[in-house]
Amino acid sequence: MKLQTFVMAATMMCSVACVNAGHKRTLPLAFLTMDGIHADGSGAFFAADGFDGDRVYAITPEGTTSVLAGGLAGPIDVTNDSAGNLYVTNFNNATVSKVSPEGVVSDFATVLTGPSGITIDSSGNLYVSHFGAGNGDGDTVLKVSPDGSTSVFSQGGLLNAPVGTAIDKEGNIYTANFNDGIVLKILPDGTQLQIAQIDAPNGFAIGHLAYANGRLFATGLADQVIYVIRPNGRVRVRRNAPEGDFPNGITFDSATNQILFTNAFAPVSGFERIRLRNRRY
Asked: Among candidates 39, 121, 105, which has minimal Cα distance to 73?
């Protein structure tokens, strides 16, 4: 496996307010902050602004970055359905927004306090993990059906401020606890299995998850590393993050067979890439 730095000469296109003002403003990627990121399989991907932001960015395979939608309420994570619609968790108002390919935002579902990670299955059901309020009192992963109705997928037990989520081809949901570093596999019937635990010496362990090649990839914020977690629970450091970075957003890009990750809560000038050797996802 080889790590490559993908430095994008990207620009951010004008927001609606800027267009209405009669001029066009561009900014380099280094002015943007991002939380969760998501590749859609075409080579393009999307990024959520974070809990103190209100935008979702679209980034083309060529690296051009534009504001796809604004007016969100602390967007944390993003996923897409087969029709190209995005679904975004809003940390600050406990909702999931739907964003059309044209950037039209609508309310899709009301969820629990502090929604964080989001992923989608082949039937269009969403799975939303809930960090909760304060220092993280959430203990639930909700299932959101294609019509926007919600139900409890898994609750209590080992869940302790779950954040990042991912899904495998069998429909198993993976999530990781921000507070204690426990990584869970949740079976389709909601049964929780602990598959690993990552030390959280500073009170926080994992930001987001990605699933690829039969393995989980996790961003270790406190330790400034990318972890790879095998099905047998073995955890190893896959890559140290660049000095001074705290990796957070992470995604698998099937178009290039690469893992992408980016810095947490600070402007970024590029995305780190881990090239995978084979395709078993």
From this structure: 105
Residue 30, SS3?
Answer: helix
Chain centre to alpha carbon of residue 220? 14
Digit-coded pLDDT (tens) for 207-225:
899 999 999 999 987 788 8
Contact 84, 101 (CB under 8 A): yes
Burial zone of 54 (CB within 10 Å; 0-12 exposed, 13-18 middle, 19+ buried): middle
Report CA-CA distances (Å) from 193 to 98, 182, 196: 31, 10, 9
List the one residue out of 202, 203, 190, 199 whose CA is nearest residue 218: 199
Can you give the residue ranges of every domain in the chain? 2-275
CATH topology of domain 2-275: Neuraminidase (2.120.10)
pLDDT at 58 over 50: yes
Token pair 């939380």 in the structure block, residue? 35
| Dist CA 175 CA 183 (whole Å) | 6
Give the pLDDT confidence of 88-142 residue by residue, as tens digits: 999 999 999 999 999 999 999 999 999 999 999 999 999 999 999 988 999 999 9
